Amino acid sequence: MSLTLHGYRPSVYTRAARLALAEKGVAYDLAEVNPFAPEPAAGYLALHPFNRVPTLVHDGFVLYETGAITRYIDRAFVGPALQPADPRTLARMDQIIGIVDAYVYWPLVRQVYVHAVAMPRRGQSGDHREVQSGLAAAAKVLAALEALLDAQASEPAFLLGSALSLADLHLVSMMAYFVEATEGAAMFAQYPKLQKWFTTLSTRPSFVATDPR
Ligand SMILES: N[C@@H](CCC(=O)N[C@@H](CS)C(=O)NCC(=O)O)C(=O)O
User: Fold this and answer.
1) Which atom of ligand 1 is nearest to the CA of 11?
2) pLDDT interval class at 109 (50, 70, 90)
3) Whose CA is nearest to atom 9 of ligand 1?
């Protein structure tokens, strides 16, 4: 069996796929591809025409789009189920993954984290307007995620309740970058259930093992 994840260690989407592989206990090779390099890596466009990461290649089966990859990993390999069987809980998982892709990635990662943390670390000045615009959008999505946790009957350990799911893995690395920004951490402190969830997720062995640094 050959299983290769083409990805970039600092990438939040690559980490979501790596988290799913780690939680299932599946061994794989990581082929490093930097999608932000000036030119696409040699041959990579044949795997991923949009030059994003990650792409999974399993015995010649090529798959890109992280939500498809993590669902495939869960279905194709033995190990703990990362998707609930109940239709409504599964719909909630799909909804959260959709929220993450549509409303979390850009403002929390590409606007707040990149401009307030990553660029200054590289000695570049981030754009303050990007940070402000990202924070405004973040307030709305954090409130929506906290409301989903609030709607659950008991104190939920995970986004869907008592069981870990792909929704947790899709979100956690984005949140980890967001709270590296001082402004992000200050905003996040206003959402106690999300904070508790983040502590649970970010101390799991899979999260520690996939730390990009
Ligand atoms: N819809 C894609 C998004 C993947 C994505 O945007 N990955 C980022 C890294 S976290 C990337 O490759 N960015 C390169 C770029 O924006 O040019 C997925 O779900 O896999």
Assistant:
1) 10
2) very high
3) 11
**Does residue 107's CB lie within 6 angstroms of at least one atom of ligand 1?**
no
Which domains occur in the chain, in start order?
3-76 (3.40.30.10), 87-204 (1.20.1050.10)
φ and ψ at residue 79, rounded to 5 degrees: 125, 175
| Beta strand extents in 13-162 (DSSP E only) | 29-32, 55-58, 61-64
Strands 61-64 and 29-32: unpaired
pLDDT (tens digit, 9 = 90+) per residue, 194-204?
A: 999 999 999 99
**Centroid of ligand 1 to alpha carbon of 114 (angstroms):** 14
In angstroms, the Cα distances linking 80 to 3, 57, 114 are 19, 22, 34
35 alpha carbon – ligand 1 mean position (Å): 8
Tokens 């979390």 sit on residue = 104
Stretch 150-179: mean pLDDT, rounded?
94
DSSP string, 144-213: HHHHHHHTSSS--SBTTBSS--HHHHHHHHHHHHHTTSHHHHHHHTT-HHHHHHHHHHHTSHHHHHT---
What's the distance, CA 117 to chain centroid?
Answer: 18
